Amino acid sequence: MTENNHYAIEASRLNIYYGNFCAVRDVNLNIERNKITAIIGPSGCGKSTVLRAFNRMNDFILSSRVDGEIRYHGKNIYAPDVDAVQIRRMIGMVFQKPNPFPKTIYENVAWGARINGFRGNSDELVEETLRAAALWDEVKDDLKKSALALSGGQQQRLCIARALAVKPEIILMDEPCSALDPIATLKIEDLMRELAENYTIIIVTHNMQQAARASDFTAFFTMAEDRAGEMVEYGATKQIFTRPKDQRTEDYITGRFG
Amino acid sequence: MKSLPSTPSETSLDTELQLFLKRRHRNAKIWQIIFYASTLIAIVFLATLLITIANRSFGYVAIENRVDPDSLSTRPLEELNDAELAGIIREKLRPNRVKTIERAGALEQQGYNRLYEIVIEEIVQPEVIRSFTLLESVFRRSWVQQTIAAEYPGAEMEFRSWLNTRFLQVPMASQPELAGVRTAVLGSLFLILITISIAFPLGVGAAIYLEEYAVHESRINRFIQTNIDNLAGVPSIIYGILGLAVFVRAFSTFTSGAFFGVEGATTGRTMLSAGLTMALLILPILIINAQEAIRAVPNSLRQAAFGLGATKWQTVWYHVLPYAMPGILTGTILAVSRAIGETAPLIVVGASTFLVADPSGPFSNFTALPIQIYNWTTRPQDAFRNIAAAAILVLLISLLSLNAIAILLRNRFSKRI
Questions:
Q1: Which residues in A lie closer than 8 A to residue B300 (C-beta atoms)?
Q2: B73 burial via Cβ count (<10 Å: 0-12, 13-18, 19+)
Q3: What's the confidence (pLDDT) of residue B10?
Q4: Does residue B21 sit at the A interface (CB-CB below 8 Å)?
Q5: Which residues of B touch A159 (CB under 8 A)?
Q6: How confident is the prediction for chain A on average, in pLDDT?
Q7: What is the pLDDT of residues B218-235, one digit of tens each?
Q8: Contact of A24 with A16, CB cutoff 8 Å
Q9: What are the tens digits of pLDDT across the range B87-132?
Q10: Which residues, including other chains, have CB under 8 Å from residue B38's CB and lie 6 or more apart?
Q11: B294-339 per-position pLDDT tens digit
């Protein structure tokens, strides 16, 4: 075992291809446990691709191929004997657009746990999870109502609650606030802070203020000449935003990019 | 602020724009009229169809009795009791016939309705010698009366609805006045039941495989897909021939029921063969519709489920299928509507045209409403066309009520979301 307790995920020499196109090249990225790591960069630099590689959501894109290693608990999650379903159960995901199931709020939270073999008290689980997602007070009287009746911000927090209900270790967030207004965005950021005590969070964002406000570590991605994404710089968020080592990082965060 | 008076160039621009706008509006108007006209034409055709059917189903008839009911008894037949009716039957019918009837029990014990029926059917024997259409009956009543009085002096005039409860309750008979659609309606319902229970799971299963599991780019799946698309357009009689060759002949041991130890199983021309053939017929339509419905399920829903650690099957079963179910049911309604009106494949597979016994199971002989209608329209007697029209009404009503059930089901599914 080469497990380093410090890191939740270790990616080394990671290359991701779509067909012949190399979308991400040679990424080495170690995600700190119980911290919030932000991935920023221009559109098309492969940051979402990397995020989705962490819980094998790229498997559904038939032409995609992953080279290199992503180690989780010291084991490469792309090893042939690893079950992707198990990986996704431990590494949850929140998507760009809120996508609650077209069922009741209660069902949205309880379903994931149930299909993963949860046999305890669903009512308790739902309350506990919705409280953790800071949604309980708003929906406690409407648990039997359709999740689609909630506002966008509430739906996104419900999606976070849904992810929490299966008790993952890591939560991946793919631009979770891009469809939300500033107030709902702040709520989600506060929530992320609270969750970071128990979970490792990796967030992809286009919003640099968000990365600066909410994250502990920041990875900056950009595109190389041939459009392949690469990681330029990775470090503590404070350092990246105040004393970037790379000129390209500085250009991007100061808005002089492109 | 722009000044109001316009320069000459602006004016010409304005008129040019206005002319162009006028042309666009005129084009839109013309298309609107065309669409309006086509809708109107469709409505006219539909109305003509319904009027033609109703025209034949109801109307005045001239009836001639072989034996005058008044000669049988001093009082009207309706007022007689069981014993008196039994007396008339013993007196008027041949002893052998009475014996045959009494196999089911002594005459007096068979009940008033049955006895009355025997008296009417076997002694009075009313015969419709002329039937008039509904339009004639409503608008030219006096002409109908005069015609009957002049041409059929012994006949009685009566308004008849060929579609009545008796028509629904009795099986086929050789005289149009006595024939009904009971066997055909039961046969059609039975057939549809077999068809749905085979085609629905197969069709939905195939659609799930093709949409969720199959690799779209692979050559073999593209081949399967192309074949399904083409099969949806194959004429139904070809399915009939396929059913005849495969289900009736090749698999006759199974479709006749001999394999399952059914007594008297001789041919494969059974309800089961017909149901299987119909299932094949609607399968491609069902698959294509179900595929469309499954394709319309947003991908975000699948990703949400996968992101929680759901397996593919859990994702399909709990989210994709419920979401697609209203669409799948709509496709099933369309497919079943097609099946219920199909005639050609049933004729080829060997539908019986004269069946009086109710269908007893999947291995019984079968007939269906379209078969019965087709058969009646080819008969020479005029009155058969009246009952054919009535049977068409029955077919339309059963079709609409089946669809109504399916729509109710679909709405329940949509509401749950």
A1: 95, 97, 99
A2: middle
A3: 59
A4: no
A5: 304
A6: 89
A7: 888 889 999 999 999 899
A8: yes
A9: 888 888 888 888 888 887 777 777 787 888 888 878 888 888 888 8
A10: none
A11: 999 999 999 999 999 999 999 999 999 999 999 999 899 889 888 9
Q: Please report the DSSP string for B150-178 in residue order.
A: HH-TT-EEEEEESSSHHHHHS---SSTTT
Q: Return the pLDDT at B230.
A: 94
CA distances to B66, B123, B134 from B71, in Å: 11, 11, 32
Can you give the pTM of this predicted structure? 0.82
Please give the structure tokens belonging to residue B194. 């077999």
Q: Mean pLDDT across the stretch B280-304?
A: 94
Task: Give me the sheet containing A200-204, strands edge to edge.
Answer: A75-76, A64-72, A7-18, A21-32, A229-236, A217-223, A36-40, A200-204, A170-174, A91-94
Interface residue B311 vs chain A (CB under 8 A): yes
Angle at which helices B382-416 and B8-57 cross, to 10°: 130
CB contact under 8 A, A85 and B311: yes
Query: Hunting for tokens 């394999």 — which residue is that?
Result: B259
Residue in A89, A95, A103 nearest the CB of B309? A89
Min Cα separation B376/chain A (Å): 52
Q: Which two tokens stand for residue A120?
A: 């305890």
Closest CA to A13 of A28, A31, A29, A30: A28
Higher pLDDT, residue B16 or A173: A173
State whether residue A40 is helix, strand or coil.
strand
Q: What is the pLDDT of residue B3?
A: 52
Q: Is A159 on the interface with B (CB under 8 A)?
A: yes
